[in-house]
Amino acid sequence: METKSIVSGIEAALADQLALAGGDPVVVAAGEALVAALRPALRRAMMDVAEQAALEIDAQLPDHQVEVVLRDGDPTMVVRTETSAVSFTTEDLDARLTLRLPPQLKSELEQAARSVGDSINGYVIRSLVGKASTGKAGRRVSGTFET
To answer: In angstroms, rounded to a whole number, what is the distance separating the alpha carbons of residues 118 and 16?
Structure first.
């Protein structure tokens, strides 16, 4: 979130209002003092808005963690995929499900499982656990997130 341009825009709007005062030095000095006093409050308000937005996004993305970090003094939202804490052994697996997949999807799943050092069965189970437990599978989110 680029806060400098937002603060500059508010300062410019206040300067325009001060210009309407007709150049009275007392009013101009008071206005400039007000602008200087508002800068920290505006930055804090923008941080609060970013934190509220992160909480809203986090609540809608159950398999992600959303947090606000400062980068170059500006609040930035960071979205991370939570790793599932599901642990199981082959003895735990007594339920069976037959799933028919297109060959391309099967290939992609095998490749994804290999890339994280897991079996395709383990990879699919870990991927499904978060979706099944939240009941929010298939939610669509639009917007821009930094990952």
So the answer is: 62
What is the signed CA dihedral for 64, 68, 70, 73, rounded to 10 degrees? 140
Q: Answer positive or negative: Cα dihedral of 91, 93, 96, 98.
A: negative
Q: What is the mean pLDDT of residues 27-49?
A: 86
Strand stretches in the chain, DSSP E: 64-71, 74-81
**CA distance linking residue 5 with residue 82, whole number of Å:** 33
| Domain layout of the chain by residue ranges | 1-62, 83-147
d(CA 61, CA 65): 8
CA atoms within 13 A on the CB side of 6: 16
pLDDT in tens, 88-112: 666 677 788 888 889 999 999 898 8
C-beta of residue 147 within 8 angstroms of C-beta of residue 80: yes
